[in-house]
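Chapter review. Work through the record for Exodeoxyribonuclease III before attempting the end-of-chapter questions.
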Amino acid sequence: MKALRIATFNINGIRSRLPALLAWLEREKPDVVCLQELKAPDQQFPGEALEAAGYGCLHLGQPAWNGVAILARDSEPLEVRRGLPGMEDDTQSRYLEAAVQGVLVGCLYLPNGNPQPGPKFDYKLRWFECLIEHARQLQGSGHPTVLAGDFNVVPTDLDIYDPKSWRKDALLQPESRDCFERLLANGWIDAIRHLHPQQQVFTFWDYFRNHWARNAGLRIDHLLLNRDLAPYLKRAGVDAWVRNEPKASDHAPTWIELGSRRSRKSA
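Structure tokens for Exodeoxyribonuclease III:
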């Protein structure tokens, strides 16, 4: 495995934000990108433009809603799985898995769950339970693995500017947080929190009530590393400048940098 920069980015509509996506790819040059909320069917995915920018693509689209994709710089992602095990009846495009540059990459868009309580929250929790079980299988696979995406969970109160007005939101519910904790308990490392244990790091700023200008953000985009990949983690952060661009997504790309297998052996 060579040194890699892996990012996750909820693009919130890939067709309308393609220029911004291409500008970010050109400036930051991530090696692997997990995209969520494509909001486009597969036939409208801008594969030619991304390939011209140097990225091989896998995508699982859906008209108007959801959709996930994995991009690989100067290479082609090798598809492993479409859809989350245990959710075979799910009609929503939320999970894609591929082998890229020696790493197994799971790209996910976990259900929002609002309003709660209700069927949307029940769907969120069912999806989360299936993810926990699949992640348990991945943990024991022996392959270096990252689960990256919009988890639609604020893990702790440190991960939000002010929890008071969000207490009834599905992102902060005790059940949602418990699922995230149980996922980590299987041995997964939350990369941002691991390297920045006391720092408020945000990945999402709502369009309403001037959240971006006030830096009133939430951390809901996560990169989780299994035991086989965690030793290579070097850096992690957020390209917040993207959120300040014209016609920006309400999310900013979140990324990790991994050292090479050779540098790990010599460490």
